[in-house]
From TrEMBL:
The lineage of its organism: Bacteria, Pseudomonadati, Bacteroidota, Saprospiria, Saprospirales. Residues 11-206 form the DUF6089 domain. InterPro entries: DUF6089, OMP/PagP_B-barrel. This is DUF6089 domain-containing protein. It comes from the Bacteria.
Amino acid sequence: MPQKITLLALFFAFFALPRVQGQLQMRGLEIGPWVGTAVYFGDLNTDFKLNRASIAGGFAARYNFNHRLSARASFNYGRIEAFDSDSDNPFELNRNLSFQNDIYDGTLQFEFNFLPYIHGHSEYWFTPYAFAGVSVFNHAPKTENDAGELVNLRELGTEGQLSGDEYGIINLAVAYGIGFKWDLTYELSLDVNLGVRSGGTDYLDDVSTVYPDASELLRSRGPEAFALYDRGLMLNTEGNRIDREGQQRGDDTVKDTYLFLGIGLNYYFGDVRCPKLGHAKARRR
């Protein structure tokens, strides 16, 4: 639903907002790095808490078609993580799972400026904007075992996946968000944006469906898989973990989501064009 709202906003804004009349048109490439933070929402963060935000960054290239429309390609990295121990939900507290995941993300998006934006112009030197596009990302959720070592969860088949039938590590997601950009000089500008990636997978956290048969998991995947598929705190009267085969472990009706929030510095290689007078740079007066 959020991505549909963003796409509708882009559509109506394109036809409804006024344009710069018959004058300067900006066209050209700008590139630069960005730094910020990454946040995850999913089965191990159902309360949308922000306390586990981690480092993120990347490099982007934007091509400006004119003062309204542009396309941006970016390569991005972000680490996401979550802990059931942060939750207020009794079920999640008892489940007691945790993970971290390094996301490598390539995104192509189209942007619409809500205000005319022309580098170096005395009036049109800033704008909010919205964007939508598609992302391809690679991920591999991990957790710490009892010895404090990082373990790749996908290889353990913690929800009973057979060897060779694990979830994919390369996925597609819908990308959408909002931002704000403004000039520092004719060539340099800053860009702050919040980008959402959703719909790609429900296994960013290695949690999605139900608990497997514990004895079968132990036989097929070994003791480490058995130790990590359920780290519940609740014990039965014999001091063993409660067998919850087939019981809910996660919610597979809603895909996991990750967000990038960052600020970027861009260098502009293009020019500003005047339809009647040829090429010209409109520096801020």
